[in-house]
Every structure is written in C-alpha cells, then in structure tokens.
Design a protein that fits this description.
The chain is α+β, with helices and mostly antiparallel strands. The protein folds into 2 domains: 83 residues; 144 residues, no CATH class. It is built from 8 helices and 7 strands, in the order ααααββββααβαββα. The chain has a 7-stranded antiparallel β-sheet.
Length: 241
C-alpha cells in the first residue's frame, strides 16, 4: 500500500512539474520582471522546493505543496499581466514634454556657456519617460577603471547581460530581472551613444537617460536620435516583451 501511495504521489509531482514548466512559458522575462515583489520573491523561494528529487513520502509531499503554491502564483501573475504593462502619463518633471510613439517624454538640456557669452562649450541632457511602477531598479553607467579592477579582484559584481560589447562598455547594477527590458535594439542604441557617457536609471516608475558631450556646432547634437531610441525601445519592451 505504501509503495502504491508513494508511486501515485511521485506521478502527481511529475505532472505538476510539467504544468509549472508550461505556466512559466506564459510569463515572458519582461513580465516576470514586472511582477510585484511579493510574487517574485515567493516564486524564487518555492523554486528549489519544487525541484526536490527525494523519493520519500515527506520530500515528495513538500515538493507537491510547493508546486501547488507555485501554480497559484503563476495563475495570479497571468491574471495580472495586462495591468503590469500599464505606465503613467506623468513623467514627474516640469520640463518641456513631448510624445514619441504615444509615450510621454520630458527633456532638460543644460548648456555650458563661455564666460564671454560667445558660444557654448558643452551640454548635459536628461530625458525621461514612464515605465511600470513595479519594474525593479537598475542603473547602467560607463564602466570605469575602478569597476574593472574591482571585478578582476572579485570585489565588485555587476549584471551580465550576455552582450559582450555592452558588458565591456557599461557597469550595470540593480535587479538582474530588469535586464530583460534591455532588448537588442536598446543595447545597440546604448553602445552607439557610449561616447557621450550615458547613464540609464530605471525605477520608481521612471526611465531616465542622461549624457553629456562637447557642443558640435549645431543644436541637434544635444538630442541625438539614438538617445531617444533607448527610451522608445524600453517602452516597446514593456508593451510587447
């Protein structure tokens, strides 16, 4: 009788593991990043328990309970999915605003004027748009020598996106799951903007990109298209990823 019960429970656990694997496919990496922290943390905690390979009634019962809880969490996540992508029209900035692809943006340009007022030597630009409030924080900035040394000595760790060029040029910290919104288009735009020293900050419902450079004889240099490509790409990742 015990063996029959054990075999039945083992089959039940195997069936539920297959169901969990199927549910995982319903939530893309971007949607998983947008889940409320309560759900993300619960899924991370339950994961190891669902993979328990013990063959005792006790270990299989624990895995079975964890699988039930995980399936319930995935059901909740799938139901929340449409709301998870929602973004605010408020970009929390009194600066001039405009829309690109339907998304609100605000821009601030600070110019360094020559003391004799004969021209501009350089500028700093900040552009922001809204992202879902549940998206965890992430900061991307140019990788400096101290970052490289810290990494080589295993004293500092960063997020590895798997994109060799991006990872070589930038130091990325924060929530690793948020890297899902750094799509190939976003990464390519950041690499193209690298000479301007861009800093990208995601969190608290905002995506903020800032950079600076020397003035290049015309105002268009202050707001290159590739900078807007970064923010438009982030919004597209949130809306479709």
């Amino acid at each position: 009788m015990y063996r029959d019960s054990l075999a039945g429970l083992a089959f039940q656990v195997a069936t539920k593991r297959a169901a969990v694997a199927s549910r995982e496919q319903e939530l893309s990496p971007v949607l998983r990043a947008l889940l409320p922290s309560r759900l993300r943390e619960a899924l991370a905690t339950l994961g190891p328990r669902t993979l328990e390979q013990g063959e005792t009634m006790e270990s299989l019962s624990d895995a079975d309970a964890a699988l039930d809880a995980m399936l319930a969490l995935y059901d909740e996540g799938v139901q929340l999915a449409p709301k998870l992508r929602e973004t605010s029209d408020d970009v929390a900035d009194p600066a001039p605003r405009f829309r690109i692809a339907g998304a609100p943006h605000a821009v601030v340009v600070k110019a360094d004027v020559h003391p004799d007022l004969t021209g501009v030597s350089g500028f700093e630009v900040v552009v922001r748009t809204s992202v879902p409030a549940t998206l965890p924080s992430l900061v991307l900035r140019p990788e400096g020598l101290h970052h490289a040394i810290g990494k080589a000595l295993h004293l500092a760790r960063e997020i590895d996106t798997g994109d060799p060029e991006l990872d070589a040029r930038f130091w990325i910290t924060g929530a690793s799951e948020t890297a899902a919104v750094l799509t190939p288009a976003v990464r390519a735009a950041l690499v193209e903007l690298a000479d301007h020293g861009p800093v990208l900050r995601l969190g608290n419902g905002m995506a903020m990109l800032s950079w600076s450079a020397m003035w290049r004889f015309h105002a268009r240099a202050a707001l290159p298209d590739v900078a807007l490509d970064v923010l438009v790409g982030l919004r597209l990742a949130v809306e479709t990823g």
